[in-house]
């Protein structure tokens, strides 16, 4: 099979040798999480105090569960309508269409594209801040190139790379990215353990009134940083053993959370609450820190180039742009890159962007839609089984034409009863093949209750988090920090 730029990022041919093993599926999931849990998540959890432990454990457990629900939903959808495989390029919207119709499918497509595009903005900001930090540390505060300018520089450098289309070998790129993540983890551990402790590093108790605000902010950031749901179905379809998706998701979360836990524990012990939104800004100057800053910027840029191509390809499909290299593609991707630069220059703090995206855009994809799809597909599966049973029984009981029938009525009734019983047993075994593990743990009715609780709690948390983040963003504009675009525009006016 010949690959084109229209091929899915993780898609391969039907040969099992080119399919993803469980190990590489875990690599892909860890790559999706990237360095953000190591660099940008510790402060949000430390601010919550001991409540932060319960917060991240609860949210990540729900995320693992809902990611598994998506995989199970796809298996049920294939059973009900095998033609859904033809829409495997956009599996999330395909699930939306088979469950609630084409209008929700279009909305899900828009939401996924918007989430992917917005997710690249914090990548650009954090990478630029790390390069600014690196310049200051190396030159002993003498060279100050603002990250506002680094955003523009990185955007210009990345733009030609985005013209070339999607990567041809995701296994290699994902492996390189995960190696960078592990190296960043080791370097930061070295910096924390063997670096100096600031004198102002004291642990302060957050008031009871503020704790819930910190928890809501942490909820949005966690949802953003551990958002695997838009691509988890693509990973499943490219796995050799599709039933092992829950194991891959669980192991991927475990690896990233383990690195995050180690960094957070030693950071809280050594620096207390004296931690900035980016952990690299807190650490003392050292050669390992310089390498860590470069690797973080490289990993974030690599992640942006890889993840944004899915969005670009979808938009090119919508605009009927040829898959070959052409001017229209370059113009479209350049416009989107410029838009990303403008948005990155327009926000005061990257942590607010992560929390806003995670709480408002990512949360429906992670916590609300998977349980809704699963419950609807359970109902459709039940109707599908009943319909197949009725059709089978009707075919068996259909009397043969003509007066010379070979079977007597009594024998025909016994035969139909035998086939009906056998059909029920075989179909029940087939339908429950993919859900064997979960059915041992959860009763179907209990699962429905759990799904309803997740949906209700997520809707409430999403509304509260969105309100707090919008309010915090407004306060940051007015009282605390001005966005880059404000400072650049003022500089241009004075020229």
UniProtKB/TrEMBL annotation:
<feature type="transmembrane region" description="Helical">
    <location>
        <begin position="247"/>
        <end position="269"/>
    </location>
</feature>
<feature type="transmembrane region" description="Helical">
    <location>
        <begin position="353"/>
        <end position="374"/>
    </location>
</feature>
<feature type="transmembrane region" description="Helical">
    <location>
        <begin position="215"/>
        <end position="235"/>
    </location>
</feature>
<feature type="transmembrane region" description="Helical">
    <location>
        <begin position="446"/>
        <end position="470"/>
    </location>
</feature>
<feature type="transmembrane region" description="Helical">
    <location>
        <begin position="48"/>
        <end position="66"/>
    </location>
</feature>
<feature type="transmembrane region" description="Helical">
    <location>
        <begin position="147"/>
        <end position="165"/>
    </location>
</feature>
<keyword id="KW-0472">Membrane</keyword>
<keyword id="KW-0812">Transmembrane</keyword>
<feature type="transmembrane region" description="Helical">
    <location>
        <begin position="330"/>
        <end position="347"/>
    </location>
</feature>
<keyword id="KW-0813">Transport</keyword>
<feature type="transmembrane region" description="Helical">
    <location>
        <begin position="20"/>
        <end position="41"/>
    </location>
</feature>
<dbReference type="GO" id="GO:0016020">
    <property type="term" value="C:membrane"/>
</dbReference>
<dbReference type="Pfam" id="PF01490">
    <property type="entry name" value="Aa_trans"/>
</dbReference>
<dbReference type="InterPro" id="IPR013057">
    <property type="entry name" value="AA_transpt_TM"/>
</dbReference>
<feature type="domain" description="Amino acid transporter transmembrane">
    <location>
        <begin position="26"/>
        <end position="396"/>
    </location>
</feature>
<feature type="transmembrane region" description="Helical">
    <location>
        <begin position="289"/>
        <end position="310"/>
    </location>
</feature>
<protein>
    <submittedName>
        <fullName>Amino acid transporter AVT1I</fullName>
    </submittedName>
</protein>
<keyword id="KW-1133">Transmembrane helix</keyword>
<feature type="transmembrane region" description="Helical">
    <location>
        <begin position="172"/>
        <end position="195"/>
    </location>
</feature>
